[in-house]
Structures are given as structure tokens and as C-alpha cells.
């Protein structure tokens, strides 16, 4: 696993290894970073926020993470569908959800320990 360092976050951005991302990101088990594919979850949108659906989690499970850390935004506004929680539980994957500033602290700890962690980080609300 690549050793990443999530340096900071604020409303609308996150900095990982000196690179600033101005969109939600996925941190894969191998350390690769990709843009969150929230279009997968758009069919489940009921308010102003696109919720996190199991369709976004499914590809991460193929990477066999020990844990998935979900950053729910600077104020914790990212909704997570109940079906998403059940999907992770049914597949035996542990997960932690926390406001993004707290989630990056947790993720940094897991990465420092060399754990097989994956993450989805929401950078706004």
C-alpha cells in the first residue's frame, strides 16, 4: 500500500501529498486517488445532496479493504443510504463515517499503520 498523507481539508477541497483536489475523491487501497463517481448515486437523490449508494461502494469491495472510511463533508451533510450500510455489513467490511476533518485524521492513522483502508471523501457540506 502506498503511503499517502492527507494534509488538510476545508470547504470544497482536500489536499493529499501536496495536491489540492476541488471535488469529492475516492482513495483506493493501493493509494490511487480518483474522482468520486457520484453519478452512480444520482438516481437515489431526494434532496439537495446526492447520497452515497452501494453502487459507489461495490467497486471498492473488489479491492478487499479492511475498512472503508467515509468523510461525510465539512458539516457531515452527506447522506448515506440505509441500503449502503446494509450492503457493507452483508459483505463483512467495516466502515467508519465521520465529518471529513475527523475522517482524514482517522484515515491517516490507518494508513500510517499500514492497514488496507479505502475512503470516500465528500469535500463540501
Commentary on this structure:
- With 125 residues, the protein is an alpha/beta fold.
- The chain has one domain (6-122): 3-Layer(aba) Sandwich (Hypothetical Protein Mth938, Chain: A), CATH 3.40.1230.
- Helices cover 24% and strands 28% of the residues.
- It is built from three helices and eight strands, in the order βββββαβαβαβ.
- The protein has a five-stranded mixed beta sheet, covered by helices on one side. A three-stranded antiparallel beta sheet has the order 1-2-3, with helices on one face.
- The radius of gyration is 13 Å and the shape is globular.
- The mean pLDDT is 95.
Sequence-ordered SSE layout with sheet pairings:
Elements: E1 6-10, E2 13-16, E3 19-21, E4 25-27, E5 33-35, H1 54-61, E6 67-72, H2 82-90, E7 94-98, H3 100-112, E8 117-122
Parallel strand pairs: 6-7, 6-8
Antiparallel strand pairs: 1-2, 2-3, 4-5, 4-8
Provide the descriptors you would attach to this structure in a database record:
125 residues, five-stranded mixed sheet, 8 strands, alpha/beta, three-stranded antiparallel sheet, globular
